[in-house]
Design a protein that fits this description.
Length: 229
């Protein structure tokens, strides 16, 4: 008589990965609540860090200090509830930071439509790349190297354009961020599925930043191409 042997270890691993992915999506959805609250409160108060610091280098430095300091602290607490709290603080702050762009867009006659289109396109990208992550046969190691190189190129371009202030380069950078962030979503979701990422906090952080970049970049592009004062 042959005994049926079931690999519970393998099943448990698959269940664990699926649980991490589900927690990632739930935390990601939750993270947009403080982000929207930050944007709303900032717009109602008329608060803008760019106006306070006079724009230019000071505002840029303040943004990068906040961004990288928060990312560092979240990653350091990626397995604890402290990480979740820090993520909520981070997304609230990012909502505050994007508020001036939203106010500018909504001040246009077709601004609400442009913001809506950017949001819809961002959602479409997220669902598409998440679905592709489950079915793609792309080598994730190669994609990871491509994303690393892409991140370096984008950062160099951003810094360079702070000096040159070339509109065409700014639009190119925005388009680059849309492509880069879209691929990063697919990469991150696939990492969770393959077990390469076991922290839903870290995964949610990466995807949130990607969606934030996609939305803000699409908004820049749409305002430049279809804005109407």
């Amino acid at each position: 008589m042959q005994n049926d042997v079931y690999d519970y270890t393998s099943t448990g691993s698959a269940v664990q990965k699926n649980t991490v992915l589900q927690k990632t999506y739930r935390l990601l959805g939750l993270s947009f609540i403080p982000a929207m609250a930050g944007a709303f409160i900032s717009s109602k108060m008329g608060f803008s860090i760019y106006s306070i610091l006079g724009g230019g280098w000071m505002a840029t430095i303040a943004f990068f200090v906040f961004f990288y300091a928060m990312v560092f602290m979240i990653e350091k607490n990626r397995y604890s509830n402290t990480g979740v709290t820090l993520l909520m603080v981070f997304t609230f702050g990012m909502g505050v930071l994007i508020s001036p762009l939203l106010q500018y867009a909504l001040g246009m006659s077709n601004g609400a439509q442009i913001v809506g289109i950017a949001a819809a396109m961002t959602a479409a990208v997220f669902f598409t790349m998440s679905a592709m992550a489950r079915r793609t046969n792309i080598n994730m190691s190669s994609l990871g190297r491509f994303l690393t190189v892409g991140a370096v190129i984008l950062m160099i371009a951003v810094v360079a354009n702070l000096f040159m202030q070339i509109p065409a380069l700014s639009l190119t950078i925005s388009a680059g961020f849309v492509l880069f962030s879209s691929l990063l979503i697919m990469f991150q979701v696939r990492q969770v599925i393959d077990g390469g990422e076991d922290s839903h906090i870290s995964a949610a952080l990466t995807i949130f930043i990607s969606l934030y970049n996609i939305f803000s970049s699409l908004l820049h592009l749409l305002l430049a191409l279809g804005g109407d004062d």
